[in-house]
Structure formats: C-alpha cells, structure tokens
Amino acid sequence: MPSHLLAGGTTFGVSTGTVALLAIGVLAVAGALLWRGSVALRVRHSVRTALQHESPAARIDAVRQAGELGLAASALPLLRLVRDESDQQVLTAVVRVVAERQWEPASTPRLVELRLWARAYLERHPELRGANNTSEPLLAGVPGSVGVPSLDPARAERFKRNSDTVHETDTPTPPRLHVADADALSPVRVVVTGAGGPAGVAVIEALRARGHHVIAVDADPMAVGLRLAAEGHVVPRCDDPAYLAALLRAATLGNAQALICTVAEEYPALIAGKQYLDEAAVRTLFPSRDTVHSCTDKWAFAESMRAAGLPTPDTELGGAGSVAGPWVVKPRYGRGSRDIWTCRTKRQLAAALSAVPEPLVQGLVIGREFTCDALMDTTGALAGASPRWRLETKAGISTKGETFEHAEVMHVCEQVLKAVRLIGPANVQGFVTGEGNVVIHEVNPRFAGGLPLSLHAGADLVEEYLRAVLGLPVRPERLIARPGVTMLRYFREVFAE
C-alpha cells in the first residue's frame, strides 16, 4: 500500500487521534441536537397542556408562548382552543398573536385557516379595534387596539413593526404591475383553478406562451395541468370547507397576483372568499352569484331566456309537459354531455326521466351546433367573441371545429350574455337552424374546452381577461378571430417520474 495512504499510524494522512476527536465531536453535536429537539418537544407539550388550563390567565400566557414557538407549529392547538373557547380575552389574545406573527410565511393550511378565523372573529367584534384595553392583563405593555390579521405578504413587515397602527380603513397594497409597453404585460404570477380540465389546460398553456408564471391547482393529484404549470398544488374540492384555506396557501406561497377560475362550480366558494383573496393581494374578476346561478342551473337559465324574449328551446322541469317531441333530457345541474338523452318515443322519454337526476326536458333543435367564446368587460359590454362550429365532439368537448362569421350569432350571443349580466369569460352554446334562426341552449360563465381554436385564430381572450383582472383596459382589437380556421385535436402525453 502506498506510504501516503498508511504510514506511521495514519489513515489517508489523518492521525487516528484526530479521527477519534472528530468522531467524538460528531457524537457531541448529534447529542446536542437530540437534547435540543427533546427540549423543544417538552416545551410544545407544556404549551399545549397550558392551553387547556382552567384559568383564562394561564391560557392567555400559553397563547403568547405558542406564538413564540411559531404559528406554523402552533396553529393546530390554537385552532382546537378557539373551537371550544368562550372567554373573549383568550380569543382576543389569539387574534393578537396571529396579527403580530403576520411576518411568518403561510407555510401550512392550518396557519392559513387560523388567519382566516382571526380575521372573521375580528370582523364580528369591531370594538376590539377601537377600544384601548391597556388595563387588561391580555394587552399588558402593548398599547392601542388589536391589529387586523392580513394574508397579504406585502403588509407582513408592517404588522411585525407595529401591529396596533393598522386600522379598519387600511386597504391592502396592490401588487406592483410592470407593463413593458402599451401592448404587453410583463410576467404575472397567476393561479389557475381546474388544472385537470380542458379549459384549465388551455388557459395554462396560453399563459405560459405569454411568459406568465402559472400556479395550477386541482383536486385531482393526477391532473395534467399540475405538470404543465410552473407550480402545481393539490387542493380539496370546492365543496370542502378546507378548499379556500388550501387555495389561499397555494396563492400565498406562490406570491400570486391574479386568479383565473376555469370551473363554474367553484365560483360560489371563490365569491364567498373574495375578501380573503383581496387581503392576500390576489386580483380577481368574478361574475355575480345571481349570474353564476342563472348559468349553472339550466332551469333558471331557460326561465331567464324566456323572460328576456331570447330564442331558447321549449323547456319543462321534471317532465315533457307541453314540450313537443322529439326531446332532449338532461340534468338540471350538470357539465359536458353527462346524462344527456335524445328521446324520439314516449318509452325512451320515460326511461330517461327515471335515469336522469332532476331531469330537464327540452325540445330537440335541428341545426348546426356552435360555441361562441366571448369576453365581457367590467361594464357588462361585449369586448369580443369568436364563434366556432362544433364539427365533432367527445364527452361534450369539441375535438374538431372551425371558426366562422355570422352577424346574427354574434348579436344573439351578446344579448344573451347581457341578459344574465355576465362579466368575464363565457362560452355560449347553441344552434343555427336550417331556416337561419339562432337558438341558444346554454351559457357557461368560464372559458371553454375548445378555447385553443379561438386563441389560434387570433382572439387573445386569456390575455385580455388577465388585463381586466388586473384593472387594465380590455383591447377589443385583440379579440378578433379569423374565420375559416380549423382545429383537429389529438392526444398528447405528459410523463412524470
């Protein structure tokens, strides 16, 4: 063996004594770390035990200690405390700790949920922001009123410096938007919901093509859009109480500036949580609750069209009634082509009515089917639209299509969208009959799965909608689609390991 590897009791040029000292040092460091970890565990356990103490003063002190340990580690026991706590001083102590620890990143769903609770509690008790409670043990040494917990990272340092200077009239500082020139946005950080659907994928790819940073979210961990975006987060379904907290966590961690929803069923939860999205400095532009209801409830939509005198198929709820056959039976609430039956005999109609949940019966319209991708500006005016023939569909999604020009289609679609008072993106579905009549049977208050055809034909609907979300003017000249552009769809694979 070469002498430089083993000579005079050395190994690789290092003495055995040195090796022993290094080993002792490593063991000492490991022991110190283990001791420190065990101490931290004991401290956390003692704090959690103190949060259950019978004395409110002891619980208040435990709340303060929990804050010192960090909200990411203490959010769960604090949430358990406020669930059953009846003492207002203890609850106010939690609100203050949350506000004073605003500088902590929203690194866990529980932390976001705790901030949401604190914000809601303070809104129910506005007197806590105006009264001087320095005589109370809860606020000893901290003059002034309770600060408002915020989800806006831009305000975190202000809370850290002096939380008692934040008042109810304060508004979140909007994100700084850099516009490279009059025509183009610089990269924007955008949350896109429904990343697994065709509309979500189309929006993600359109934003990526523009150079934006996309934060995709979906309830399905296998959603393809989670792999196509710069960031992907799995969130609960929109009917889950934890949906909003998980969405806010993804937006906060990604420092999002805007949100685009591609699933109409998510709107009620998003509209209900808009104040929290605003607080997190996430810009949004949603239709109203009434508009969403009119579009997602097919019976409500038919009634609104009938009231406005706009062309729609004869419609009855629960049975054929006075609707002449042949018939189309579909669920009152549904998406795509699920549970849609075409019936030409009374026997087929009876079978469909028994199979379809909350069945809606419409007269069958014979004609050429189309979808019109549209964008309504913040005033409710039609900013632009792109009608396209649905040459072939699978599972309700256009797989072959062609853009076209038709003045009456554009006029009727505009009147329909104004009738439901929609703002933002929409897709209008209908038929042009052999006699040239335009009949509308559905409006979706979101981008469509066939959106790529309109985008390729020149109607830059996603970018212009993003401009509207950010408070910038929509440019109608960028929403003109070339007629005669054909789309033929095929499968494409995305691999993950």
Briefly characterize the structure.
With 497 residues, the protein is of the alpha+beta class. It has helices at 16-50, 56-69, 71-84, 88-100, 109-124, 127-130, 156-162, 198-209, 225-228, 243-253, 267-272, 274-279, 289-296, 298-308, 346-355, 407-419, 451-456, 461-469; strands at residues 10-11, 14-15, 189-192, 213-218, 231-234, 258-260, 315-317, 327-331, 341-343, 359-363, 367-376, 382-394, 397-403, 424-433, 438-444, 486-488.
Give an overview of the whole structure.
By secondary structure, this protein is an alpha+beta fold. It is built from 18 helices and 16 strands. The strands form 4 sheets. The protein has a 6-stranded antiparallel β-sheet. The chain has a 4-stranded parallel β-sheet with strand order 5-4-3-6, with helices on both faces. The protein has a 4-stranded antiparallel β-sheet with strand order 7-10-8-9, with helices on both faces. A hairpin with a 4-residue loop joins strand 14 and strand 15.
